């Protein structure tokens, strides 16, 4: 009779493996690894974990959107667990692969090539208001009114470009007050 208690425990554990392992794999370990990545100077691990959290957010949004459909799929929790393991385990670099081959080409190549967000330098952040008019004036001062008009006309045309554009982030940008670097 003593063996049946352990056997019952193992049976419950096996039947609920996905429920027990999924938070550890998808939240606890990535949280720990993200904190460690913040404390290192390497940009590679920062990118890995930022990419993971973007994909985790997308998975969560998918689950929230299609909850009624997902509840009819008995294998969903196991599929999500295996997919999350593939994303998380550094040997596979699954998060980087999914981001580079699916997310980034869709989001980055379909955005406009001109960055409309003007982020001022720290020295003039209190001297004038930061709005779209200030950004337009600055663009015209640097590039001329003809270039501004061309940009407006180019934006009005609904063309999709297949070139790689990094309008919303710069790989070479560093924070001025970042003490890690």
Q: Tell me the fraction of residues in β-strands, as a range.
A: under 5%
Number of helices: 8
Task: Give the beta-strand count.
Answer: 0
When the domains are counted, the total is 2
Write up what this structure looks like.
This protein has 181 residues and is mainly alpha-helical. The protein has 8 helices and no strands. The termini are far apart. About 7% of the residues have low confidence. Keywords: Membrane, Transmembrane, Transmembrane helix. InterPro entries: TB2_DP1_HVA22 (IPR004345).
How would you summarize the topology of this molecule?
Layout: H1 2-15, H2 17-38, H3 43-65, H4 67-70, H5 76-88, H6 94-108, H7 132-143, H8 145-156
Helix pairs in contact: 2-3, 2-5, 3-6, 7-8
Protein name: HVA22-like protein
Transmembrane segments: 50-70, 76-99
Membrane topology: Multi-pass membrane protein
Attribute tags:
single chain; 181 residues; mainly alpha; 2 domains; 8 helices; 0% strand; membrane; transmembrane helix; transmembrane
